[in-house]
Amino acid sequence: MLSNNEFIRQSLELHLFFARIMKEHSFFLEIGFTQKDLGFARKADSLRMQFDKLLADVISISNGVVSNNILQSGEVFTPYTLKAEMASSYFTGVEIPINLTKAESGLMGYDSMGSSALLQERVSIINNRAMELVLKLVQFKSDILSGVIHCNMFTNNYPLLIDHILREATFYYRLIERLQDNEDINLEKEAYDQEAFWNRIMAEHSKFIRGLLDPTENELIDTANNFGNEFDKLTEEAIKAMNMTLPISEITDDSLKATIKIKEFKKQGTQGLLDCKIKSIIIPLLGDHTLREANHYLRLLKVFKTVEVQ
User: Fold this and answer.
1) Phi then psi for 114, rounded to 5 degrees?
2) How many CB atoms lie under 10 A from the CB of residue 125?
3) Which is one Pfam family of this protein (predicted)?
4) Burial of 114 by CB count in 10 Å (0-12 exposed, 13-18 middle, 19+ buried)?
5) 229-239 in b/e burial notation, b at 16+ Cβ within 10 A?
6) Are the beta carbons of 141 and 169 closer than 8 angstroms?
């Protein structure tokens, strides 16, 4: 069972990462609809703003509470996030509240956090709000995916991308649910689940990047394709280890090496998009979005490595 301090810290850290991811999913959906589906665009915009509010409330109580490790990992924000938001807002006309990113950049990690019944109650309320909001987003994404697959709707987003962000939302919901149940997480078992999940996410990021690059960007296309193949293999190995309960340490090593490499690729790609040096149809915020997810996974892998060594 989680201590009060751990419940508070883990909940806020989870939302600092995933609430931003969810609001950006809503943004990517919003800008992908045609004129025919303006109602869907408005719904996506409404969900985006609700996640903005959720993230703002999380930020307001996170100072001095969350760990320095999270704030320094690059999963909450990166050196490119603010510029990527400004550029993406300029390109689309959608107003993105950059004040949230500025507020996050000013957060300080905790030194020693005392238990607070009031703070615990506020966090529990935020968790419930997040679960309710994520369920709305899951249903929205499911409706869009069904419409696209059955040729009742056209969107500029790949069907796989819609399925991809649907899985991430469902994953987020389950993590909040476990926190609300005060579930004590077994990191050894967690490694199997997380590596299978995130290796697949990294593989799909690579394929999306490959497909959104201009056809003349041959070198970048080849690199993205190679990453896709590498992470597909790592996904298969993690699932095999999970099903056969084999030691995952070797896969963790390989996943760590691959994630360090793809993080650098995404970092250079995001910088290239912002500097207008890469020809593509990739909105800059998508580059930064995938970079933050790589940073998040990299931090998890380092935790798993520490557990294996002990």
Assistant:
1) -85, 155
2) 11
3) DUF2935
4) exposed
5) ebbbebbebbb
6) yes
Query: Looking up tokens 């933050």, which residue turns up?
Result: 292
> What sign does the CA torsion over 146, 159, 251, 17 have?
negative
DSSP label at 253?
Answer: H
Task: Specify the CATH architecture of the domain 1-165.
Answer: Up-down Bundle (1.20)
In DSSP terms, 213 is beta-bridged to 280
Q: pLDDT tens digits, the chain, 310 residues: what are they?
A: 788 999 999 999 999 999 999 999 999 999 999 999 999 999 999 999 999 999 999 999 999 999 999 999 999 999 999 999 999 999 999 999 999 999 999 999 986 666 688 999 999 999 999 999 999 999 999 999 999 999 999 999 999 999 999 999 999 999 999 999 998 766 667 888 899 999 999 999 999 999 999 999 999 999 999 999 999 999 999 998 888 766 778 889 999 999 999 999 999 999 999 999 999 999 999 999 999 999 999 999 999 887 654 4
- What CATH fold (topology level) applies to the domain 186-310? Ferritin (1.20.1260)
The closest alpha carbon to 202, from 257, 137, 275, 241, belongs to 257
Q: Could you check whether 1-165 and 186-310 share the same CATH topology? A: yes
Residue 277's identity, in one-letter code, is: K
CA distance 279 to 173: 36
First to last CA, the chain: 22
- The answer to whether residues 2 and 183 touch, using CB atoms and an 8 Å cutoff, is yes
Write the CB contacts of 141 (distance below 8 Å, at least 6 apart in sequence). 25, 29, 162, 165, 166, 169
27 and 94 Cβ atoms separated by less than 8 Å: yes
Give the phi and the psi of residue 77 in degrees, each rounded to 5: -160, 160
| CA separation for the pair 97, 251 (Å, rounded) | 39
DSSP string, 120-149: HHHHHHHHHHHHHHHHHHHHHHHHHHHHHH
